Amino acid sequence: MTVLQGKRQVREAGFTLLELLMVLSIMAAVLAVAVPMVGLPKRGMALKANALALAVQMRTLRAAAVDRNLEQAMVVDLKKKRFWVAGNGRVKGISSQLSLSAHTRPQDVVGPSAVRFRFHPDGTASRGTLIIREGARSARIAIDWRTGAPRIAWSR
Hints:
Oligomer: single chain
Order of helices and strands: EEHHEEEEEEEE
Structural class: alpha+beta
Shape: elongated
Number of strands: 10
Radius of gyration: 28 Å
Distance between the termini: 63 Å
Number of helices: 2
Helix content: 25-40%
Strand content: 25-35%
Strand order of the largest sheet: 5-4-3-7
């Protein structure tokens, strides 16, 4: 806006309505492209997050077994896709888009679709492998019975 002051013209600072509308339209276009991309899960993230959560729980139980001098166990329900610490009421879910299978000793099968991974006070563990699949990708969590350490092997 131009204002006459004496013999000179003075232009006031600010933005015109047209400039504001241009900036808002550019912002709307950027948001229209960016917002849908934020909501899309990255491929393989459910597999990675769940495999890491299970391995962390196993490491925690191994440490607790050694620390408390008391066997600790984690139960995984392969069909209902959930897991929990034996003797603890808190059940944690596993993503429904994943499929689960396990290889354990017969004495560690604790139900029609549930298996148990045991961690002993001396640091050892029961033998066992938990396989998590998401399409063609998989994570194989194998427990070294001598050290009780879970190791994740990734495949694509």
